[in-house]
User: What shape does this take?
Amino acid sequence: MIPHTSGAFGDLLDPRFQKIFHEQYNQIPDMLGELFAMIAHNGRDVMTWSEVGAFGDWAQFTGRVNYDSLYQGYDTTATYVEFASGFQVERKLFDDDQFNIMDRRPQGLATAAQRTRQAHGARLLNNAFTVDTYFNVRSEGVAMCSNSHTTTAPGVSTAAGFDNLGTSALSATAVAAARIAMTQFRDDRGNFIQTAPNELWYPPNLYEEAEEIVAAVGKLDTANNNPNVHKGRFTLKEWVYMTDTNNWFMSDSALRAQSVYWIDRVEKEFAYAEDLDTIIAKWRGYMRYAQAFIDWRWVYGHQVS
Assistant: This one.
């Protein structure tokens, strides 16, 4: 890491400049709390969750109770990842800086930290169609959005209700189909579960389609005066950190809060020190966190080619 020196930042020493611009852009809103349930860590180096399945339907009583069995579900283990950054400043530059730019540089570290966290939060959606083990490992071994979900319960068909992967471009018709598909989700025993899809997650490129779908009074792109059944039904979640310009997701906010976790093992912290021999000031930041999904049934993702 090369220290910032007065020789490289001569403009900061020149009082003839009216203003030196730095970090003049507004910060993108923090969306982590919109997507993840922010939970406390357990004081250990990993967080692990497991599942216990549901009961099956009752059998007809014919003189003897039929005792059912529960089945162990899948495990999810989240491992914290460390992130750090810093910068160095020559004492002379710090003292003679006419605009106090270097004195305000730790603020820039905090801005960069938030950008890093947002990108890692969006990783849940950006990597939803692959098995991503950067922050967590789930023993089911398939992508969060997949048509290959399995169950540990014996004898249960996964032919219906275990698929949360679509390929349709965002449209009113595709939204209707995704909603119907989510209402058909099954638990580990193949029983129907209650879902209430009420969110659409999408990149800025799809904002026009998303706004029209939930705001139009009449049915989209038809001459008929049919009412728009999607009007006001979904909360729109536009996120610039979603990197694919075509992919989008439907989610159930209540199930999402029970299924997707963010854990700060060490929240953002900053420290300062000055080297005695070189008189170079050093600032550094550090954070350590993980994220995990423990169930897939909160979301239906469309990987659009």
